[in-house]
Design a protein that fits this description.
The protein is α/β, with parallel strands linked by helices. It is about 30% helix and about 15% strand. It has an eight-stranded mixed sheet, sandwiched between helices. Strands 5-6 form a two-stranded antiparallel sheet. About 45% of the residues are buried.
Length: about 300
């Protein structure tokens, strides 16, 4: 992680662009938690990159005073991995939603876990496709009925009889793929989420934070009250380094644990492997020499 020459307060990471999410959107709380975490980690806006895909939450890079990359749908992880591989001195944070990360982008997830780049992936999980007006997502609960906006319930009836497919469990999947830091947060507990994000950013490797971020416009089923009644803090005696216990906690049917669920600090990162290769093949040529052959 890059070391800042001066400390930056949370407000120093706010850009001049004002968030345009719907009133009551959980993404506001997530954004404020991110500001606090970036400050707590001593990040420097000039050496920080925020990468996103497509979706309501993927607008976030514009609201942060740092470098940003607004990519295409589902491709945030390979973009961020490439940035970190090319510029290991930069702090790279990836943001997106459950549709972007767990649907069209799901194929990149296990391979990012294998490479273990030193990046932080923050998913704002609102259990719906909010930007495209309320279709069900991979994390929508059964039987979610998408009736569109509470303002105009006659539109966007994509699943008027309810979703009939099983919801995925992204926390359990991440642990199964051995993502080296797996946590869950809740936008209505921004201070706790900021602490989780701080730990994730400081972690050397691929970090996933699945943050519940309710959508008040297109998902009245999984709203803030729904999660306030069903979330609970990770038990104090939970050992996040025990992968089996972490998986057991992730698949418990009673409620949703909030906090660090799994972490592995001994997994080699992509940057470590690159450094080993550079040392191994030092003196055997360079990229510049290769380019000169084609000049």
């Amino acid at each position: 992680m890059a070391v800042a020459e001066a400390l930056f307060a949370p407000k120093d990471f706010k850009s001049d662009l004002k968030p345009i999410w719907c009133a009551g959107c959980g993404d506001f709380g997530v954004l404020n938690a991110l500001y606090k975490a970036m400050s707590a980690c001593g990040l420097n806006p000039e050496t920080t990159v925020v990468v996103s895909g497509i979706g309501c939450s993927s607008r976030l890079p514009g609201f942060v005073k740092s470098y940003g990359f607004h990519g295409v749908h589902g491709r945030a992880l390979p973009i961020a991995t490439g940035i970190k591989a090319a510029r290991p001195d930069l702090d790279v944070i990836v943001v997106g939603g459950d549709g972007d990360g767990y649907s069209i982008g799901a194929g990149h997830f296990p391979h990012c876990a294998r490479r273990n780049p030193d990046i932080t992936y923050l998913i704002m999980n609102n259990n719906t496709y909010g930007l495209t007006k309320g279709q069900v997502s991979p994390t929508s609960m059964v039987p979610m009925v998408s009736l569109g906006s509470k303002i105009d319930s006659k539109r966007w009836k994509t699943t008027p009889y309810g979703m009939m497919e099983d919801s995925i469990n992204p926390i359990a999947q991440a642990i199964a793929w051995d993502v080296s830091f797996v946590a869950r947060g809740f936008s209505y507990k921004p201070n706790q989420l900021a602490d989780i994000l701080t730990q994730a950013i400081k972690h050397k490797g691929f970090s996933l934070i699945d943050a519940f971020s309710p959508c008040p416009t297109f998902n009245q089923d999984q709203n803030d009250d729904f999660y306030k009644d069903r979330t609970y803090d990770v038990p104090e005696d939970h050992d996040p380094t025990n992968r089996v216990k972490a998986f057991e906690l992730a698949i418990k049917p009673e409620g949703y644990p909030i906090g660090v669920i799994y972490r592995r600090d001994d997994k080699p990162s992509l940057l470590h492997e690159q450094a080993v290769l550079r040392e191994r093949f030092a003196g055997q040529g360079s990229l510049e020499k290769l380019f000169s052959k084609f000049a």
